[in-house]
Amino acid sequence: MNFINKLSAAWTTNNSLLCVGLDPDLARFPAQLASEPDAIFLFCKEIIDATADLACSFKPQIAYFAALGAEGQLERICAYARQHYPHIPLILDAKRGDIGATARQYAREAFDRYGADAVTVNPYMGFDSVEPYMEWTDRGAIVLCRTSNPGGSDLQFLMADGKPLYQHVARMVADKWNRNGQCALVVGATFPEELAQVRAIVGEMPLLVPGVGAQGGDVEATVKSGRTAGGAGMMINSSRAILYATPQGSEDFAAAARRVALETRDAINLYR
Ligand SMILES: O=c1ccn([C@@H]2O[C@H](COP(=O)(O)O)[C@@H](O)[C@H]2O)c(=O)[nH]1
Fold first, then answer.
1. 57: Cβ below 6 Å to ligand 1?
2. Would you say 157 and 165 are in contact if contact means Cβ atoms under 8 Å apart?
């Protein structure tokens, strides 16, 4: 099953548009767990097991693993998710962007090494920097469009031919890059007006929407702006608000993560 079909099935099976982000930060782990040699794997495994029936996708952010030289634990957690929850898409958040020959190596890393269903990519270097990912015809390329951070406006709001740059990205991906129906876009929940603009441009294309939870994006505005006619079309990501739902040690972290994931999924579903 390809990425888009797998995502559509997960939306239905789990009645969820929630993407659970995996941004493991040892400093925020329970102290006893943090001292384990494979603490990152164990933490992410607990989170995955606690939320797998509530999520439409999981999104490990590679920097949290690579910064600690913990790519081996990322490999293990991706393998674990694929083995135990093969119906939930796994998105590697790596925001890659480079010339084609190098992009092909990044694609091998995302799809062969980690077995991701999709990877986030940066459009700044143009189509030949994204095309190599399309050679894996059953996987997805999720292109940065209007990111959730305030500084994204520095470039993404620049006007060209009377329109902001992020709208050109949305139009270009929808009309030219998405030849095999493998593309999705990143649009921040912190920019609901722009989310609505992107939805109007790209039709049913899936959107990865980070920014609810720790970044303060409004759930109602996000869902109403980004939903498709069928009430889906988005992976609304929350990472820290789920992973660190409770002060260290005061409650079981996985139970707290489940509680917040459930609340977030249900809050999203109110407005679909
Ligand atoms: O525009 C973007 C693109 C990616 N991200 C990533 O999503 C999560 C958000 O984490 P929270 O803890 O829910 O804020 C994180 O991995 C970012 O690298 C984003 O925030 N904005």
1. no
2. yes
Q: Is 8 helix (H, G, I), strand (E, B) or coil?
A: helix
Q: Find the catalytic residue in 95, 163, 176, 224.
A: 95
- Rounded CA-CA distance 98/225 in Å is 32
List, in order, residues 6 or more apart from 159 with CB less than 8 Å away: 165
Percent of the chain past pLDDT 70, that is, above it, reads: 99
Please determine, for the modelled complex, whether the ipTM score is greater than 0.95: yes
Domains recognised in the chain with CATH numbers: 3-269 (3.20.20.70)
Residue 188 CA, ligand 1 centroid: distance in Å: 9
Do the Cβ atoms of 111 and 119 come closer than 8 Å? yes
pLDDT score for 250? 64
**pLDDT tens digit string along 61-112?**
999 999 999 999 999 999 999 999 999 999 999 999 999 999 999 999 999 9
Q: Respond yes or no: is residue 224 known to be catalytic.
A: no
CB-based contact 120:186 (threshold 8 Å): yes
